[in-house]
Specification:
This protein has about 120 residues and is mainly α. The protein is about 65% helix and about 0% strand. The radius of gyration is 20 Å and the shape is elongated.
Length: about 120
């Protein structure tokens, strides 16, 4: 199954019209129609907005495989909206120099260990 076929299958399953999908993604309806008529796939710069709109992972959209289904290893990456709190934190992290990053990671790991210890003490 192609990526565009998977998109149309998801749209049908979710009862989303091409117009609503176009409005949600900002992708012109004519482009979406071309995927079906010309049997083409979306451009790579559209994949993340499509995944966000259809609430699927890039792995699923590109391969049709769920992260927990049938593969010998788990998916080892996260998809994060850059405007979310996690995305903002990650952007801040990337704007630090190497020593600042190491210091921040050390602090985060120490906080995590403290949380684990306090959780085990309350049990």
């Amino acid at each position: 199954m192609t990526i565009s076929e998977r998109i149309f299958e998801l749209l049908e399953e979710r009862g989303i019209t091409q117009k609503n999908f176009s409005d949600a993604t900002g992708i012109p309806q004519s482009t979406i129609s071309d995927w079906r008529k010309k049997n083409t796939n979306p451009a790579s710069d559209k994949i993340m907005i499509i995944c966000h709109t259809l609430q699927v992972t890039p792995t699923y959209l590109l391969s049709g495989v769920e992260p927990d289904g049938g593969r010998s290893r788990e998916v080892e990456y996260l998809v994060i909206d850059k405007n979310s709190r996690d995305g903002v934190l990650l952007d801040c992290y990337h704007n630090l120099n190497v020593s600042q990053r190491e210091r921040l990671l050390g602090y985060a790991q120490a906080m995590f260990e403290m949380k684990k210890e306090s959780s085990s003490e309350t049990k």
